[in-house]
Amino acid sequence: MDMQSLVVAMGAMGGMGALFSAGLALADKKLHVEEDPRIELLVDALPGANCGGCGVPGCGAFAEALVNGKALVNGCPVNNADGVAELAEIMGVEATAGVRQVARVLCAGGDAEVATRGEYLGVKTCLAAHMNHGGEKLCEYGCMGHADCVAVCPFDAIHMNDNGLPVVSDDKCTGCNNCVIACPRDIIELVPENKNLFIFCKSKDEAKHARSVCTVSCVGCAACAKGAGGDLICMDGYLPRIDYSQYGEVDILPTEKCPNNSLRIYGQHSTPTINGLGPKRSLPVEAPVAEDATETSEA
User: Fold this and answer.
1) Count of C-beta atoms within a 10 Å radius of residue 83
2) For residue 167, what are the contacts with CB-CB under 8 A and spacing of at least 6?
3) What tens digit of pLDDT does each residue of 197-254 get?
4) How far apart are CA 44 and CA 28, in angstroms?
5) Are 213 and 139 in contact (CB under 8 A)?
6) What percent of the chain has pLDDT above 70?
7) DSSP for 58-109?
8) Which helix (H) or strand (E) holds 6?
9) Contact yes or no for 299/229 (Cβ under 8 A)
């Protein structure tokens, strides 16, 4: 290639480069979207957990939702009152910190209380066991004890106790909802921390079968509903449902007649092991039921 051809080629390439650069600069000017400066301030003020508990994927997305009016300043479950106040100041709104949400494990059937069908040799996760005929435990509604909830908690707020049940550390729980999503049996719920009364059972079976597989199962006797009066506690089949909008904060039981201690104030009573049974029962054993609480919810 002679010198003239080389100069022409270099000139053509340079001209094309200049043309493309000008086009990109024009496109950037026309298509540029100004980012609200508050977003960066909000991201810096957020805890940075990126747990998704707010309903969007990460703190950056939550900050964008705030400036777009699609989220509230108290919508981050990990944030504390000071953090909410800082977000409110950035957004120029009133700080309204809601009641703190915490996880509650609503099952008391551990290794010592639930009968088993044999040794489970499958993948040691709750999801795998749930899909494989429920794993080793005969209760189809209770905790399987393979700690999926522990594995997904980014705050080290759940551990397994010696009875094979998950225990939540209230001081570490941020209400991120990861454990709720991970549990295939739906025995973990996020609740306001001022709600203390719970039914520690999810079984929908009638009394005879429920007692044959778990010594601390709810037997559907409706004693709690009768003791509470009105419609504060209503029966949904064999399982009581508490209307927290009416009950509010409670620190006393509506009745002491719950035969298996399924109805309890959170943290007030420990779960008894009926008849002193040891862990890993291989045969179903019926739990004793109080004589004055043998009526079923059908009565």
Assistant:
1) 18
2) 105, 158, 159, 160, 161
3) 899 999 999 999 999 999 999 999 999 998 888 888 999 999 999 888 776 666 678 8
4) 27
5) yes
6) 82
7) SHHHHHHHHHTTSS-TT--TT--HHHHHHHHHHHTS-----PPEEEEE----
8) helix 3-31
9) no
Task: Give the per-residue pLDDT at 295.
Answer: 40
**Widest pairwise Cα distance in the chain:** 110
81-110 pLDDT per residue, tens: 888 889 889 988 887 766 788 999 999 999
Is residue 282 packed enough to be buried (19+ CB in 10 Å), middle (13-18) or exposed (0-12)?
exposed
Q: Which residues contact 132 (CB under 8 A, 6 or more apart)?
A: 120, 122, 123
pLDDT score at 27: 65
Closest CA to 164 of 269, 284, 280: 280
| The residue to which tokens 């508050």 are assigned | 38
Confidence of residue 268 (pLDDT cuts 50, 70, 90): low
Cα dist. 156→24, 166, 179 in Å? 48, 12, 11
DSSP structural state of residue 19: H
Integer Cα distance of 136 and 133 in angstroms: 8
- DSSP labels, 26-65: HHHHHH--PPPHHHHHHHHHS------TTSSSSHHHHHHH
Q: What is the pTM of this model?
A: 0.69
Q: Which amino acid is at 130?
A: H
pLDDT of 70 higher than 60: yes
Q: Find out whether 139 and 217 touch, Cβ atoms under 8 Å.
A: yes
DSSP letter for 299, please: -
Contacts by 236-242 with C-beta closer than 8 Å and gap 24+? 237/204, 237/297, 238/203, 238/204, 238/205, 238/206, 238/207, 238/210, 238/296, 238/297, 239/199, 239/201, 239/202, 239/203, 239/204, 240/199, 241/199, 242/197, 242/198, 242/199
Per-range mean pLDDT, top range of 118-127, 274-283, 285-294: 118-127
